Amino acid sequence: MNSNTLRLPLPDDFHIHLRQDAGLAGYAQDAASQFGRVLVMPNILPPVTDPQQLMEYQRQIEAAAPGLQALMTFKLNAKYSSHDLVALKAAGAVAGKYYPAGVTTNSQDGIGDFESVLPVVAEMERLGLVLCLHGEEPGAFCLDREKEFLKHVHALVAKFPRLKIVLEHLSTRDAVEAVQALPATVSATITVHHLLFTLDDLIGDGLMPHHFCKPLLKRPEDRDALRMAAFSGNPKFFLGTDSAPHLRGKKECPCGAAGVYSAPVAIPLLVQIFEEANALDKLADYVAGFGADFYGIPRTSRELVLERSEWFVPMEVHGVVPLAAGKTLGWTIKV
Ligand code: NCD
Ligand code: ZN
């Protein structure tokens, strides 16, 4: 490798939203420009809850973006029987996603009562299905929602010692420290935007609706802790972009939707972030190693090549304003 070319194992994104219907093909193709495999979140309308629908959604994604492998999730609720979970696993589900009721996009049908879902979680542990957590406590003050959810993570670990748990899109130092201290069955994803930004980038100056996401961006010391975790080489921390496209009009309006569209720019931005921190040697495991290891799938044998050349990020991609829109990045993906 010379310093103007960077060869990475083709990255995996262990948390992405690809939506349904008209937007799906473009969003899947944007993901395929950066990733070989993506863990697809189930909060589409209607949500992914049954095996036929899960397989059909996977088929649509992979047909729209040849070369992209969709790893599938279902939306957790208290109603699944053991038979339902066996069928979801047989259909290809690798994880179930826990959304607390009302905390984010399309989560009105999420879990209101933590205890109610425990029998289903017990069955997931038995079947080896991963539990992905949107770790925010409904009703808590917005900046404290993640911290206040951590008690549930501790309870889950105590009850289900063999259950693999991913605390998604970490946003606080408290959550980083909790994941570090918990057993190896608990890992976490970190997004690109939580490595880049703090609350100042959302509301510190003008209101920046395209930086509005759940969980909210937090304080500088939180971002520092997230960066240290990502650069540390600790296998508990790996990439999940939480790329979440909403059409421009759904963001620039009186009650804007939460979600940052990072898929089109994720890897060049991460290269920049890791390079600036002198941590480029930690990037390959972060984007294409630790996540696969945790999920128990083989590491990729494919490659992504970037070159050091300026890339102007478009103002809009498929009707959505992407992360870093209008900025010039220092790395370009070679196609
Ligand atoms: C996500 C979405 O739009 O689906 N939004 C977000 O702000 N991250 C849902 C989620 O992961 O919370
Ligand atoms: Zn998400």
SSE layout:
Blueprint: E1 5-9, E2 12-16, H1 24-32, E3 37-40, H2 51-64, E4 69-75, H3 82-90, E5 93-98, H4 118-127, E6 130-133, H5 145-159, E7 165-167, H6 173-181, E8 186-190, H7 192-196, H8 200-204, H9 220-231, E9 237-239, H10 248-251, H11 266-276, H12 283-288, H13 290-295, E10 303-307, E11 311-312, E12 328-329, E13 332-333
Parallel strand pairs: 2-3, 3-4, 4-5, 5-6, 6-7, 7-8, 8-9
Antiparallel strand pairs: 1-10, 10-13, 11-12
Helix pairs in contact: 1-2, 3-4
Q: Examine the coordinates and then state which fold CATH places here, giving the name of the CATH topology.
A: TIM Barrel
Instruction: Provide the residue-averaged pLDDT.
Output: 97
Helix content: 25-40%
Which strands sit side by side, in order, in the main sheet? 2-3-4-5-6-7-8-9
Give the terminus-to-terminus CA distance. Answer: 17 Å
H and E string: EEHEHEHEHEHEHEHHHEHHHHEEEE
Computed over alpha carbons, the radius of gyration is 19 Å
Bound molecules: N-carbamoyl-L-aspartate, zinc ion
